[in-house]
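Below is a filled-in request sheet from our internal design queue. Each sheet records the structural input a requester submitted and the sequence that came back. We keep these sheets so that new team members can see what a complete request looks like end to end.

REQUESTER: design group, bay 2
PRIORITY: normal
MODE: inverse folding
CHAIN LENGTH: 458
BACKBONE (tokenized):
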């Protein structure tokens, strides 16, 4: 497989499903669909925007299923399947100099998304960063144009006649916005630049998620804030930024206030969102923590209640860190990268996962989380570990638990279902049922739905 084909396939995997039939020749980026061909005099397929070399398509009624291909059409191998994500990443990994090579925004973001969705966060960050740099120009243009507008509203792309089409390349949309700015149309420039930035905002949000999963919470916050600077109502960034402020800055009353404002803004702007109930709940909790003077004081005030359900003493309970796993230091990251992958290490990581599952079955979510955070940096692709880590965060009621749970479902929902089997085998029938119910609810089209429902009905 050539490098150009690898990059094209990557872009296709990260995009919406194609409507082209299997085996159809690749359509070059930027090719516009031709107008519908009429059947009257003067109709000619050659007037359409077919790719160079494509056989002439006669005018007429739609081709019925089973009709032979036109003369000269490339042979279609119906038995050949497209490469899987794993096969594609292996090919990309073996492509020398790929990371340093110049790429369009679309290719860089597709590569970043591919690696992110498959738990390869270090590679994802490299490519997402390249995509981000491609969007810096139009981002700066938007911020400057918005500043010129002052308090005036930014028109919609339709009202500004930007003329963008679905799937249009970012650089061509930027050119339209730049032209508006040069003509002195600040409102049009802002509207077109903001529309062009929609995919770039998604890239910044993915970068924030990847940074968080890698333990770099400080830069994750900056990534989410970068999105909100352009679009203050961006739902995912709004939730993630507020949740991370809440988790990492529980003693900073100003930061807690900003987190509460973010949760309130989300609940107001998206009242029907799945995130809205949690946002409202966390807003109330932050109000309680702020009134107490910080998280530690709030926890101390609840020590009497916690005695009943925790084996630790009141002092230990009050002092136990309630936040998400501590971020990895640069030294720890280097240590992980430089650690030799020996059979002994792999066996030790497997044991940690098994112990984590035992903790989960006994309701010891904090201890389970500690185990999984020792495994995931070494095995980011381990679906079993990601499932356990997600369930531990859910059990602890952590705000970012919803995001990690979503990542676990997207990467390996089957591993999540198997975790329920493990919990049941270890005697935690209640936990297994709760996990399966959440899986069934969050993945309505789960392939193994029938078997899952059978388990729930037992």
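RETURNED SEQUENCE:
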């Amino acid at each position: 497989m050539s490098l150009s084909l690898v990059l094209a396939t990557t872009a296709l995997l990260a995009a919406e499903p194609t409507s082209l039939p299997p085996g159809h020749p690749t359509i070059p980026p930027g090719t516009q669909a031709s107008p519908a061909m009429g059947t009257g005099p003067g109709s000619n397929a050659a007037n359409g925007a077919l790719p160079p070399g494509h056989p002439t398509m006669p005018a007429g009624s739609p081709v019925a299923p089973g009709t032979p291909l036109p003369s000269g059409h490339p042979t279609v191998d119906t038995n050949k399947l497209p490469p899987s994500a794993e096969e594609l990443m292996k090919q990309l990994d073996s492509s020398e100099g790929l990371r340093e090579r110049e790429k369009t925004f679309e290719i860089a973001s597709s590569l970043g998304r591919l690696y992110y969705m498959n738990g390869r966060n270090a590679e994802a960050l490299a490519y997402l960063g390249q995509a981000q740099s491609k969007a810096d120009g139009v981002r700066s243009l938007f911020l400057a144009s918005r500043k010129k507008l002052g308090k005036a509203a930014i028109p919609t792309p339709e009202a500004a006649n930007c003329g963008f089409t679905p799937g249009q390349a970012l650089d061509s949309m930027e050119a339209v916005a730049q032209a508006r700015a040069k003509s002195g149309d600040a409102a049009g420039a802002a509207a077109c630049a903001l529309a062009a930035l929609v995919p770039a905002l998604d890239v910044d949000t993915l970068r924030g998620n990847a940074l968080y999963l890698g333990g770099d919470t400080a830069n994750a916050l900056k990534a989410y804030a970068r999105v909100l600077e352009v679009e203050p109502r961006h739902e995912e960034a709004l939730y993630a930024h507020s949740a991370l402020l809440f988790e990492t800055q529980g003693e900073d009353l100003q930061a807690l206030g900003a987190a509460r404002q973010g949760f309130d803004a989300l609940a107001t702007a998206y009242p029907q969102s799945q995130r809205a109930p949690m946002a409202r709940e966390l807003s109330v909790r932050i109000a309680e923590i702020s009134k107490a003077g910080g998280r530690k004081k709030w926890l101390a005030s609840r020590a009497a209640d916690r005695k009943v359900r925790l084996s630790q003493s009141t002092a230990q309970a009050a002092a136990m860190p309630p936040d998400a796993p501590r971020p990895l230091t640069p030294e720890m990251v280097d240590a992980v990268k430089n650690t030799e992958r020996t059979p002994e290490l792999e066996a030790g990581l497997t044991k940690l996962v098994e112990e984590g599952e035992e903790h989960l079955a006994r309701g010891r979510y904090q201890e389970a989380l500690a185990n999984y955070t020792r495994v995931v940096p070494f095995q980011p692709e381990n679906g079993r570990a990601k499932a356990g880590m997600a369930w531990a965060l859910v059990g602890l009621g952590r705000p970012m638990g919803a995001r990690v749970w979503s990542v676990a479902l997207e990467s390996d929902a089957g591993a999540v279902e198997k975790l329920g089997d493990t919990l049941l085998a270890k005697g935690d029938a209640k936990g297994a049922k709760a996990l399966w119910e959440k899986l069934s609810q969050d993945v309505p089209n789960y392939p193994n739905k029938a078997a899952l429902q059978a388990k729930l009905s037992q």
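SHEET NOTES:
- Residues 1-19, 32-48, 309-325 have pLDDT under 50 and may be disordered.
- Residues 401-425 form the longest helix (25 residues).
FILED BY: M.R.
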